[in-house]
Amino acid sequence: MLGIEFRHLAALEEIVETGSFAAAARRLGYTQSAISQQIAVLERAADLQLLERPGGRRPVTATEAGERLLRHASRATAAMRAAEADLHALAEGDAGTLRVATFQSVGVRVIPPVMRLYVARRPAIEVKLVEADHGLLIELLVRGELDLAFVADAVVTAIEQIEVLTDSYVLLAPTSSELAQRERTVSIREIARLPLIAYRVPTQGGEAHLRRKGFDPRIVFRSDDSGIVQGLVGAGVGYALVPRLTVDRSDTDVAMLEVRGIPPREIGLAWHADRRLSPAATAFVDVVEEVAAGLRARELS
């Protein structure tokens, strides 16, 4: 497919995503006729029809050939966007914007001390923080739309990362419960018999570990808000198997019990493997490592 350029593949992606030549043109800043010409170039090079054009209000969709090309195109466009972001960061040097993504528990416990220290050391850098679901967070990182992202148990070949924290799972129990009074380590089998408050997605968090072990836990409520989960445990609604980092330890209505049989989650700070870290990003990594060392020391004390 000689003569194919990045703009041709980007046009195909946008048309399929928006379902319209006109909408794709607006997103990419082209005229509609220019978008049509780019698709015509692609279809001539492929010698196949790549789009179904039903007419009227019905959306434009990819043919089977278009879908196959899109799978390759998405990797190519992601690499190009990562390269573009890399060059932009290199040009900006010590000034400019650093885009960092996080998820809830890291946002509550790790980000505040990191930001205090980083802003003091690099006041000229604007840090744009984004909170996202873990799957979307990885996708944004691979596409070059983020500079850095906190990740948990990530195994993605397109990223590099440093280890930040090992975050073990604990069981939250009402302080008045018999289990809390015994003050001992709880087994995974015992946990599976309890009424549990869990995250919205069964494949995430402690519930996922229970299901992988063959248990079918009884879930009495679901929420992705750590404060709601802990509050309901304190109110006696149920128990919760959560990462230690999510726990508010000042809450006297909740006991935090150690568990056995569930591996901890590994939290890291990641970036695109093909990108060279800017000085601003390198400084952020250094601050995260410093703060993480302090958090680990407090856990051991």
Structural overview:
This protein is α/β, with parallel strands linked by helices and 301 residues long. It folds into three domains: 6-85, Orthogonal Bundle (Arc Repressor Mutant, subunit A), CATH 1.10.10; 93-166 and 266-300, 3-Layer(aba) Sandwich (D-Maltodextrin-Binding Protein, domain 2), CATH 3.40.190; 169-263, D-Maltodextrin-Binding Protein, domain 2, CATH 3.40.190.10. The chain is 47% helix and 23% strand. The protein has twelve helices and 13 strands. The chain has helices at residues 6-18, 21-28, 32-46, 64-92, 104-109, 111-121, 134-142, 178-182, 188-192, 205-212, 226-234, 279-300; strands spanning 51-52, 61-62, 96-102, 125-131, 148-152, 159-167, 169-174, 186-187, 195-198, 218-222, 240-243, 254-260, 265-272. A five-stranded mixed β-sheet has the order 4-3-5-13-6, with helices on both faces. Strands 8-12-7-11 form a four-stranded mixed β-sheet. It has a two-stranded antiparallel sheet with strand order 1-2. Helix 10 (205-212) links the parallel strand 9 (195-198) and strand 10 (218-222). The longest helix has 29 residues, at 64-92. The protein is globular. The model has no long low-confidence stretch (mean pLDDT 87).
